[in-house]
Write a structure and sequence with these properties.
Layout (H helix, E strand, L loop, with lengths): L11 H48 L1
Length: about 60
C-alpha cells in the first residue's frame, strides 16, 4: 500500500542517468580538447622546433 504524501519517483533515475552521461561526455570531450590544444600540441611544436634547430646546427 503506497504511503500518502510521498511523490512517486518513477522516471527520475532514467532522467538523472541521461543528465549524468551527458555532462560526463560533454565535460570529458571539452577537457580532452583543452588538453590536446593547450598542452599536447604546444609541446610537440617545441620539440619539433628543438630538433629542427639541432639539425640545422649540425648541418653547418
Amino acid at each position: 500500500m503506497p504511503a500518502y504524501g510521498i511523490p512517486a519517483i518513477t522516471g527520475k533515475l532514467r532522467k538523472r542517468l541521461i543528465l549524468d552521461l551527458s555532462v560526463a561526455l560533454g565535460g570529458g570531450t571539452a577537457l580532452g580538447y583543452g588538453y590536446w590544444y593547450g598542452v599536447h600540441l604546444p609541446s610537440v611544436q617545441r620539440r619539433d622546433a628543438y630538433y629542427a634547430k639541432l639539425q640545422a646546427s649540425q648541418n653547418q
